[in-house]
Amino acid sequence: MLLAVVPGKRTLENCQKLVGEVKQRTGGRTDLLLTSDEHAPYATAIEEAYHQLVPVAKRPGPGRPPKPKRVLPATLCYATVCKQREQGRVVEVRRTLVFGLACVLALLLGRSPVSKTVNTAFVERNNGTDRRQNGRKNRKTYGFSKDAGTHRAATYFIGYSYNFCWVVRTLDSKDEGGSKQRRTPAMAAGLADHVWTLQEWLTYPAKPCY
């Protein structure tokens, strides 16, 4: 399930936008395992988005009261993955827990039905799918975007339609009769009960009236 897309360079500002959208679309929950490569702005953005202010007791005597202390929720974990390559091949994978406790990390990994180790495989797989569907991102071709606005629009279109219109083989399930059911990420997340057509997705109101 693709939660958020922020086209552009990997600046601190864009990292903050991305993490902010993820927090919003997960309802602000903090029992999460966040993973990325070792790009430093991610850690700054995560701390900024998820920190909580905890009061600090004032020491006896005169003086101003201390400012609240910024702490991250105990249920949140953030880990990085660094891949070392030699001659185009990965020879070492280094995993580092940046925020959180090792015991909480083990609990979150144990809860996952698809992965029991810290990795960035899912976002890497999505990047590959995105490049295959979006000709503007193919490497060494003349299909690149000439206009930033059009590039952003195509990125949003391909990225978010994937959730509702793209059947993912690894999400297949079986119904009560044992028949295979093809599912999109939105179906697996309980947001849809069928594979949407592009027309259905494009004509669905951005802000439905209930």
Overview of this structure, please?
- The chain is an alpha+beta fold and 210 residues long.
- Helices cover 36% and strands 17% of the residues.
- Strand 4 and strand 5 (89-99) form a beta hairpin.
- The longest helix has 18 residues, at 148-165.
- The relative contact order is 0.11.
- The model has no long low-confidence stretch (mean pLDDT 90).
| Average pLDDT level | 90
Helix amount: 25-40%
Described by strand count, sense and barrel closure, the largest sheet is: 3 strands, mixed
Give the overall silhouette.
globular
Order of helices and strands: HEHEEEEHHHEEHH
What strand order characterises the main sheet? 1-4-5
How many strand segments? 7
Describe the SSE topology.
Blueprint: H1 12-25, E1 33-36, H2 41-50, E2 52-54, E3 69-71, E4 77-86, E5 89-99, H3 102-111, H4 121-133, H5 148-165, E6 173-174, E7 180-181, H6 185-188, H7 198-203
Keywords:
210 residues, alpha+beta, two-stranded antiparallel sheet, 7 helices, 7 strands, 36% helix
Condensed summary:
This protein is of the alpha+beta class and 210 residues long.
